[in-house]
Every structure is written in C-alpha cells, then in structure tokens.
TrEMBL record:
Protein name in UniProt: DsbA family protein
Transmembrane found in the keyword field: yes
Organism field: Microbacterium plantarum
Domain of life of the source: Bacteria
Sequence ranges assigned to domain Thioredoxin-like fold in this UniProt record: 63-215
Entry's transmembrane regions: 12-34
Cross-referenced InterPro entries: Thioredoxin-like_fold, Thioredoxin-like_sf
Sorted UniProt keywords: Membrane, Transmembrane, Transmembrane helix
Record's keyword annotation contains Transmembrane helix: yes
Length: 228
C-alpha cells in the first residue's frame, strides 16, 4: 500500500541547506574582512612634511631625489646614517636633492615582543606630523641611541623624551596608542626590492626613483657621485 509521503516538506533538509548557506556566507565575510585588515593602511599621517602618496617624510626641495627605507632597529641602517648622513644633508642643504625617508618595520621579531621597529617608525610619523623640521633631528637621535637587536628596544617614554629633545611635545597619545601602526605595516609592504633580492631589506636606497643595490653605494665622501 502506497504511503502519503508525496508532497511532504522535508524541513530537516531545508534547515541543513540554510545552515550551510549561512556558514558559507560567514566564511566569505571572514575572508574578506581578513584581506581588508591585511591591506588596510589605517589612519594616514598628515602635514606638509609627509608625502601622502608614498608615506615618505620629505626633507628639502632639490630637483633630484633620494629615497631611504630604514628600520630603526637595523644596525646596518645605523651604520649607513653614521657613514653617509652628513653628506646626504649637505646635498639637501645645497639644493641638490630632496630626501625622502620611509620609516618601515621588518625587525619587530628582534625586540623581544615589544615591536620596537613598529613603535619607532610610528613615533617618526608622530614627530614629522607635528613638526617637519624636527624629523631629521629625531631620526638622528634614534640612531645615536639605537638599541641592539634582540633587546627590548627603547620604551615609549624614551621615544617621547627624544621627541621632546628634538622640540616636539604633545604627541604622547600618538606614540603610546601607535596611531600609525597599520600605516607603517602597509607602507612596509610597499618597500621596493633591491636588484637581485627576493625580500625586503634595510636600508634600501632609491636614486631618482631607481632602487639600487647597496653594493653600488660609493665610499664615504663620494655619495654625491650618485647624483652627477
């Protein structure tokens, strides 16, 4: 004898199908959110001393350009500043170049969990936004007081003191809240690769928009030859 099953609604199957659709939608939304989070530059710093398109801290107004990508925990960046910093500023001051400093973060792993590279790069933006003229003195002081790799780095209080010594105060929340943390991460991903390299390194140098190998940087006293 036939049953009267024909036409009966299978609510269990409908519920399962609906649940699957909801789960898939949630997964898609999560993936989209994660992708957006990974690329979201967050709040950009403003001010006349910061190039909005690239995030560079701009010093001078020469017709030629020198871009430097630096991590303030990087010892080779410190050596670069000691070796070439005065020559570079001479080129800025005589109108030869515009210096574009890109504070990036690739060595957070080297500061025992304090994320010093990110914190110091963020602080550089805080200072440059507050007073463009203080950016270079602040950078110089960061390298003069550069902590060793695998140390905890400078504290936020020390960063604020260095900023104060450079003439900038009132940026406490910008530094301690890491206002530009996401921006630093986004700009770090945009760092160009040196010729022949497959990963970002510091310092990375670009002369008139062309990234060069560090091995081609001339000896001390001859940096200007890059712009002849």
């Amino acid at each position: 004898m036939a049953t009267a099953a024909t036409g009966k609604t299978n609510w269990f199957a409908i519920w399962v199908s609906t649940a699957v659709v909801v789960v898939v939608a949630l997964i898609v939304a999560l993936v989209v959110w994660m992708n957006n989070s990974a690329t979201d530059p967050g709040t950009p710093p403003t001010g006349s001393g910061i190039e909005q398109e690239t995030g560079a801290v701009v010093v001078g107004d020469g017709s030629q350009t020198l871009d430097t990508y630096v991590d303030f925990m990087c010892p080779i960046c410190g050596q670069f500043e000691t070796t070439y910093g005065p020559e570079i500023l001479d080129l800025v001051n005589d109108g030869t170049i515009t210096l574009k400093i890109h504070p990036i973060s690739i060595l957070d792993r080297a500061s025992q969990g304090t994320e010093y590279s990110t914190r110091s790069a963020n602080a550089m933006y805080c200072v440059a936004e507050a007073d463009p003229d203080a950016a270079v003195p602040f950078m110089q002081a960061l390298f003069e007081q550069q902590p060793a790799e695998q140390s905890t780095g400078l504290t936020d209080e020390q960063l604020l003191q260095i900023a104060s010594d450079a003439g900038v105060t009132g940026i406490d929340s910008c530094v301690t809240d890491r206002t530009y943390e996401s921006y630093v991460a986004a700009k770090t991903k945009e760092t160009p690769l040196q010729p022949g390299s497959d990963r970002v390194g510091t310092p990375t140098i670009a002369v008139n928009g062309e990234t060069i190998s560090n091995s081609t940087i001339p000896a001390r006293g001859s940096f200007a030859t890059l712009f002849n």
